Amino acid sequence: MKAIDATRSRKSLASFGVAALLAVTAATAQVTAGPTAIDATGHYEKEVQACMSGQTQQDRETCLREARNAQAEKKRGALDNAGARFDANKVARCEPLAGEDKAACQARMMGYGNATGSVAGGGVLREVETVVLPPGASSVTIEPKTDEPVVLVPSAK
């Protein structure tokens, strides 16, 4: 009877060890972002080659559809990969917000604070530290200073 219990105990322990190893491996696995092989110039042939060779972060069908859409936009003269449209989009993201939320949003969009993650990994997380200036105060001392720069937001009251 004790021999059967010992065998079961070893099997249970081995099963637990394998499960723990798989869990740790899965938890530490990361998607390698790497280059997407699609450039921002709208070169259709290069983009199709990248789609067909699997060098993108998308499935083939989605990649080819995006390449066709970009080609159509380029032919209409509407493919703009920099400049004023991107800046306007950054500002527009913050429009629905108010007060300190809007100020923090604008600071994040201007590049202040920290950004982590990637599009390939599921998204980019932007964070910025804000301090609300108390009503009637003309200055505030932040000790310890935890981020550079700290965005100072006037009180809404």
What do you see in this structure?
- There is one protein chain.
- By secondary structure, this protein is mainly alpha-helical.
- The protein has a domain at 99-154.
- The protein has helices at residues 2-28, 44-53, 60-76, 84-94, 99-109, and strands at 114-118, 123-127, 130-133, 151-154.
- The strands form two sheets. A two-stranded antiparallel ribbon has the order 1-2.
- Strand 1 (114-118) and strand 2 (123-127) form a beta hairpin.
- Helix 4 (84-94) packs antiparallel against helix 5 (99-109).
- The chain is flat and about 70 Å long.
- The model is unreliable at 30-39 (pLDDT under 50).
How would you briefly describe this protein structure?
This is Secreted protein. With 157 residues, this protein is mainly α.
